[in-house]
Amino acid sequence: MLPHLFHRPFRAVLIILFALLCSNLAWALTPVRRPAPTPVLISEIRQTVLRTIGSETPIQLESLAVKVAVAGTQATTTLDMVFYNPNSRQLEGELQFPLLPQQQISGFALDINGTMRPAVPVEKAKGRQVFDEIERRRVDPGLLEKTVGNQFKLRVYPVPAYGRRTVQITVNEALATRNGQLLYRLPLDFFKSVAAFKLQVDVAGSSVAPQLQGSLLPLKFVRDGDGYSARFDKASFAPQGQLQLSWPATARPQVYTQAFDSERFFVAEVPLKAASKPRVLPKTIGLLWDSSGSGANRALPAELALLDRYFKAMGNGEVRLVRLRDRAEAVQSYKIAGGDWSALRQALQGTQYDGATALGGWQPQADVGEYLLFSDGVGNYGSDDVPDLAPGQRLYSINSASAADSVRLAALAARNRGRLITLDDQAGVAQAARQLLEEAPHIAGLAADSASQLVAQSPYADDGMLRIAGVLGAAEDTLRITLEQGGQRSEIRLPLRTGSNPHPAAAAQWAQYRIATLEAEPQRYRGEIRRLGQRFGLPTRETSLIVLETIADYVRYEIEPPASERAAYLKLKAEQGTMQAQTRRKHVEDVVREFEQKVAWWQRDYPKGAIPTPKPAPAAKSGRFEESASLDFQKSEANMEGRVFPATPMAAAPAMARKARAEVVADMADKADAAAPAISIALKRWTPDAPYISRLRNAKPAALYAIYLDEKPGYANSSAFYLDVADLLFEQNQRDLALRVLSNLAEMDLENRHILRILAYRLLQTKAPELAVPIFEQVRDMAEEEPQSFRDLGLAYAAVGREQDAVEQLNEVIVRPWDGRFAEIELIAVAELNAIVANARTMLDTRSVDPRLLKNLPLDLRVILTWDADNSDMDLWVTDPNGERCYYGHRFTYQGGRMSRDFTGGYGPEEFSLRHAKPGKYKVEVNFYGNRQQTVAGATTLQVKLATGFGGKNAREQIVTLRLKDRSETVFVGEFEVLGNGNAKPVKK
Length: 989
Hints:
By secondary structure, this protein is α+β, with helices and mostly antiparallel strands. Helices cover 26% and strands 31% of the residues.
């Protein structure tokens, strides 16, 4: 099973909040805004630390070199970090950090064989697949990916035992302007103590030396060419405070250009100091209040203070409140009289923040003048997009959360003639109120004679600066910016010249602005976002950056390497051009051969009487005897699996073939239903033993949800807690609350496919497949390297009546070559595909499916086991009325039971099949053999599906979700009871 259970290198988790990168750098200018909230979602990490699981010694940041290069308002910061592993085993490092909207990762490199190798772009799902596969082979990979919003994750493997790894990250940003000063800030105390620290700052084009503020570094700037530079080196350095630099910003517009990929890009920066003017507020507004679990992490007192100013300016009016959680709740109306909004304030203060975040699902009302959206913008639930408003309506996004999808919030507001307002804390209320209550000049139009693809960073002059980018079409051109304020329009003209102010980040800056506009509807524009990320080497929600060790790996996964390795890559790729097609064809042939063996098993008649008493066999030379008649049968079945059977003949014409197939499978399904015996399913009720259970179970139904909210802070990061509470609410017929509690799993650990699978499985179990489908779609996009991603989605499609889509997804499971740890999943998908085709409401197009695999195999009994933890080994046991157990070590039983091959390193499924069931009871158990991965819940979550009449029109199934913690633990799941009746096929004695 797992003889080397713990030989896989232990994982380390490096969690860094680079305040440099996340420049919520208002920390340096304003007090800490609020105490850290209860960690319902992702807890904020306030220091640089590399932790290991168990008692491992933390990995050390041994040296840090920071290089800052500023040209105009564009700053590039490069961090070279050397990590030392003082442990006796190699580890994987994981680095997590957020960025602000104006910041973009422009480079990532990893040391390979003593030299720094730059990363290259790759599709996000493929990047994860490649990283995980290469890690299993103990080879060096590095992966940097964007998670949610503007948050990023870097994975590095391995950090050798008593060894070092060097990681380099480069970030571009447009510097903020305050009171005519450009500001650059670098928090230092997040890095704790380092053995060697180096800092280099170069500011080009400045006539005044940067001024040092708020830092204990003895940094001195000297004249260097047309700018200034400074150096600082120190051993055994314990950084403190924050490096803050400021110098006068130019009052003149600036244009930067860059030749990239046969095009010439430009970025124009136009200072704008026009004052804002009070605007007339509508008398009816919509208030979209994010009441999900993550909503508790916002600066709620500051938000209420902002609303207080807003309603005082409104005077009299009406507010239509819509709470956004796992679904949009019904509209509630509140009157505002003389600025008094006490009833609404009381309602908002009493909000219980719970559930996932669905930003869509609400409908704009025609008489609402504008909508205010208070949210972190991190939508993680549901499939509804945020609706477009009517031409006369506006949407203002207000964000007060430190971890937010501010890019999407800004895009939503800009699309609906509003703006994003960032609310840091109480001290920022006044500035936020001015942005909300006043009309500032904003871009109403962009035009040029030959320049194209014009896009603005923001319609407003954030920090007093308009930034516009585009593609130049001629050596000289004029950019025309139309501004609007209070119904009045004006125009700014700016000359554009090819080759002026060359800047290495201009092209990437244009791509960043373009991607930001697409983020309002990221699902609709996935393709363009992916193409932009790949072309410009940017990590996006669709692309990642990856470093591989060998050229063979770049060829194997069809990833173009850095330019320095391109020639060797092309040569090797040409040599291996036909191998992948051959592999795919061979894989399908293997599946066909295995399916023919399964058909032979299905067609065979098996005895239904008691297992004969074994007779002594002649002594072998070794002196051993055969153990039982079942072993004789097991040997014959093993021999049968090695045989090749002729393919089922099919009609020649495709249309006739499809019709013939449909008739055959439908006829087989009808016959299976007609001959099916009466079978009942009894599931054992899952009874958790967590300390909160007794209190919740003893609660009155009306008090159950309130007690859950009281217990929630202590179990906020436990998926088991939400599953258990949801079960209790379902038992009390409080379905809406149960679904809300269940949806919290989507908020626990963003982009954790294991938790998302648990959530989607549970939604299927509770007869809510329409909610499960978008989650399974997300999991598929995240983990295309795992066949379960396609199988799960296919079954969910079938559950909502999308049978054709189900066939396409299941066929992907069949035709793709998978890692060897996913044993026989193709055969399981073949069975499910044929059952769907046989019972579809309309004729399905099966031309993509190999015709040799189109044969429905109805079953009396079927059991499917899946689990959430990778690198885990669960075993399905089914014991029949003969007392014979079918499991991985005894896959075929005397009466015809069949167990699929053992899954020892994946998520399952393991499948028990029996065509004709002997009357009696069949006991279903699950055994936890071993686990090489620590899950978020602290236990492995299992799903067991018991089905009768599988493949027929009267199929029935029941599903149970349960958890196992300890190795060698066994749990009873349930049982079938097969009753003999007149319709049952006579049993063979």
